[in-house]
Amino acid sequence: MTRFVYIYQHMRKRLIKSNKMNWIKILLCVIIFPLYSPSFAKIKAAGVNLKHVEYLQRKIVVQEKEEKWEEMYFRAIRINGVTHHFIVSSELEAVNPYEGLGRYGGHNLFDNDPATAWVEGVKGHGKGEYIIVKAGEIFPDTLAISNGYQKSERLYIMNSRPHHVKLSLYAGFFLEGDDTEIASRYRLKQIGGPVNIELKDKMGFQKLRMPFDRDNAIAARDSLKKAFKKEFADEILQRKEWCPTCDMEPQFSFFVKIEIVNVYRGSEWDDTCISGLSFIYKPNLYTKRRIDKNEDIINVYEDEEPDAGKIYFDTDRFKKLLLVDKTRLDEYKNLGHDEHMSIILMDVSPDKEWAQVDLIFYKEGGDRVEEYSILYNVRMQKRVDEDILDIKYGMFGFVEEKGKIWLDTTEGYIDLDEVREEMR
Asked: Nearest-CA neighbor of 252 among 223, 281, 212, 213?
């Protein structure tokens, strides 16, 4: 009855703008529809345009169905110094996740090795099988995919390759402590798609523009963060009571789902393979932006919000460019269940080209604190690799002497010009 009243009221408002006889037909059909058929067959037979009725029907269904958060556990694997989070619906020759990694598991998508691949593990060509990948807090503008099993041209042809895939975009949130030895729990909501995309049948990486509106995705991210805080307020409050020093700010990430629709069939096997996945991002606040050699760095500073874990810098052209975000550091991603980390901007070189950042680690309820230093080149927006500067516990800031700027350490003064050249 509620559905009928809603449609009737809407049509009544439109009556004066439409052909009277046509709307009489529609009203009669709306009365008949809920009584006789869940489909629109009888109304179509009456020769009535149903676009408006169909729209209202869909709108009512959306209003009546409350969208729920989807709880998903993502496998967390550290590969080449980077932690990746993913879910695969199946894999060929799957193994117990607590006993290791399978030969054809989803981790092969991120090792930059064309000789390895994720291979779905169901009977047939894998239609409907999928991968869900954490893309990070930045909107992923481009998907780079290495289609098929690219160990060799022969194996590429012998195995099946996705021809069309469906892409969907999700917003996901993580709370500190929502992880196990091998997985991390996220709560997600879909904000885009699914959209069908055609892949080329060729070796090498192919780049696909993400078919989602960037501004809409960012707006959805912001609104869903507020909704998440509201919906899980009791859980967040309870966790704060258990762990007063824990950071209970929800951590956001975009996720992309890639579902197989159909395939280029392999000459020998049905198994459908993908050798690699990665994302490409447009420069913005959270990505590296080339700083011109004539551009002056004005200031390097911490976020005003206490324990935000972010360090920014200003140039004479741009403000508040992100230099360090603790949640994106491998040290933070690899914390144990009861471990916490803070960052402090300890010193900035006189020319603002270098920054010493101290990482502080501590355990809940413990009395031991560990601290060590890392070095950043601000202009490059890059952390100095330990292969270049193998000093963690003996940095004492910057010294200007003899017309040059040096890093003061337990090993003596280090020439930062030489460090810069090695970084390049």
From this structure: 223
